[in-house]
Amino acid sequence: MDTYAASSLLCAAISTGIAWLIFFWFYRDYRLDKFRQDLFALRDSLFDLACSGRIGFDHRVYGLLRSGINGTIRHAHRISVVDLLLLFWAVRTDKVGNVDLQRYQSEWDRCLAELPSGVRRDVLLIRGKLHYLYAEQVVFTSLCLQAMVIPTVLWLVLYRIKGALPRFARFLLSESRVGRLAVSLDYSASISENRDDLVAGARPA
Amino acid sequence: MSRKEKSKAQLKAELTALKRQRSGDRIASIANHLIRWCGLVAITYLATRCIEALAGRRTLAEIGLGLDLGFLVDMNLDRFLAWLVAVLGLGYGARQRALRKAAIGRLASRVRDLETRLDPGRTSSGLTGKGDTNPADL
Asked: Residue A202 pLDDT more than 80?
């Protein structure tokens, strides 16, 4: 290894070390605090729902959902992609006790059916948000998932709005100043394309 | 429907699930620590190899200057401002975090008391008074 390469690699190692420190300490702590804060806000919205009298504090659905949010807040520091993969494997191989899961789900469904449709929608929204926050935490605390998921989501968004993008461009071009800018860009590009011919034509024979 | 007492079978099932969960947590914890510390070991190994390669050829002072630590000797205004902003940003973040924890410590008990008046069976997340992870869960 020559001196220049060794110096460069040392710089890279120190930079990676600093990035490692930032990611595993500062960023992870920040994400954990943010995740818990979002969950507290979610628990508050459930409490407000019960406070408004639309669901009783002693209703089973309230108890189940609040316990779920509390458990997630409490064990938020353990949530990671490895944890999720292990859970996925446990469910697939029935190590988690699928009978118990079915019993839990059927109890949830039965108690949820007792609620009026408007309240049921709000409760399901809170539960859905809990799952979304969980998924967000898993993605944003894993470098690999961030590298895979964020570009995929961006691509999907672009794919979904690909029809809207040309419409937006046409709308922008219809605005006079932006339109003039676009025309001047096109004009510059076209004369640059023919620059060699123009220069050759202007040169005295 | 009121909160019902759990049957013996349900409690047994929950206990079994908790035991399994605990085993899974341990495995996940080991895997997470491996990922974290293996990264540091790899970085340290790389740095050590580089230092070995440079030993006797360049001094640490030269490497330090090469690593852009030369600003300590010859600091321009733009670099000084950049470092100042970075240090102030870190300090601001740390201060905000401390303030947030203090606010949680001050307000959490009040919120808990008020909520308990409306919901006597109110359950808690089990975090510490300042919103940190419970030492028993570590």
From this structure: no
